[in-house]
Design a protein that fits this description.
By secondary structure, the chain is mostly beta strands. It has one helix at about 200-205, and strands at about 5, 15-20, 30, 35-40, 40-45, 55-60, 65-70, 75-80, 90-95, 105-110, 115-120, 145-150, 155-165, 170, 180-185, 195-200, 205-210, 215-220, 225-230, 245-250.
Length: about 270
């Protein structure tokens, strides 16, 4: 078996809120780590106030909606228009030298045939640190060389900051499909348009390749980047909380074999 995705018990206590009837474009403030559901077009707001990446995401229950991110004057900053069954997201970098702290106004262009939709903001304020490998191969879930990225089953999206240098690489488990649910968003100091990214932009810009049923991510610039993980399934609260998780392992440049140490995850993967 190679690169199995695994169910990860969640630690986040998020609340699934069913919105009451509200006039169109009056959704109000999106609280961090809270999933809201609506059946009508809405505009919302959220504010950044810490040096991390943030993300707003929207998932329709049936077909497809559009997610737009607006400024205070109503001007379009960016938009996400993913196909049926996929989560839209727009992420914002508020680390030093990128976007100033401010209030953003996401809006959902909702089509009646798409049924309800779920929307969520995650303000980040967490960091993923991938350990330097101390041995070849991995022993499974508890291996000390691993870090993890997960999205709970009652979430639409999750986000964490990660510091990488240009050319630095890491592996992600997931049957070679990690690149379709986990995204590495890089803020390039020489390109201010990279400070705010949609899912489509993140897909186009990230540097990935699949080896041994694992996905290898490589940073192209040095700095604080974001890992965004999406769920393309309707949010469901379970007890205990479940979700999808991906194991992360640093690329070992001293190993000439270039094999993936997560090839058999969550089982052990022997050294080459």
């Amino acid at each position: 078996m190679h690169g199995k995705r695994f169910m990860l018990p969640g630690t986040a206590a998020l609340i699934l809120v069913a919105a009451t009837a509200a006039p169109a474009f009056a959704g109000g403030t999106l609280a961090d780590d809270t999933v809201y559901t609506y059946n009508t077009p809405q505009s919302f707001n959220f504010s950044t106030d810490a040096p991390y990446w943030s993300v707003v995401a929207e998932l329709p229950a049936v077909s497809a909606d559009d997610l737009n991110l607006l400024n205070a004057g109503g001007g379009l900053i960016d938009s996400s228009q993913e196909p049926t069954g996929e989560t839209d997201f727009v992420a914002v970098d508020s680390n030093s030298g990128t976007e100033p702290y401010q209030t953003y106004y996401p809006s959902v262009t909702h089509y009646p045939s798409s049924g309800a939709y779920a929307v969520e903001v995650q303000d980040g304020e967490s960091i993923v640190s991938i350990p330097t490998p101390t041995h070849q191969g991995t022993t499974g879930f508890s291996d000390p060389n691993l870090a993890f990225m997960n999205v709970n089953s009652n979430q639409v999206v999750s986000i964490s900051d990660i510091y990488l240098t240009a050319g630095e690489s890491f592996w992600a488990s997931g049957d070679g499909t990690a690149g379709s649910m986990l995204y590495l968003l890089e803020a390039n100091p020489s390109n201010s348009s990279s400070f705010i990214q949609s899912r489509a932009a993140a897909t186009a810009d990230q540097n990935t390749k699949v080896i041994d049923d694992c996905t290898l991510f490589t940073a192209e610039v040095t700095g604080w980047h974001a890992l965004v993980m999406v769920s393309n399934t309707w949010p469901v609260t379970t007890s205990p909380q479940q979700g999808l998780g991906l194991a992360l392992h640093a690329f070992d440049a001293t190993d000439p074999s270039g094999y993936c140490p997560l090839a058999d995850f969550p089982g052990p993967t022997p050294a080459p």
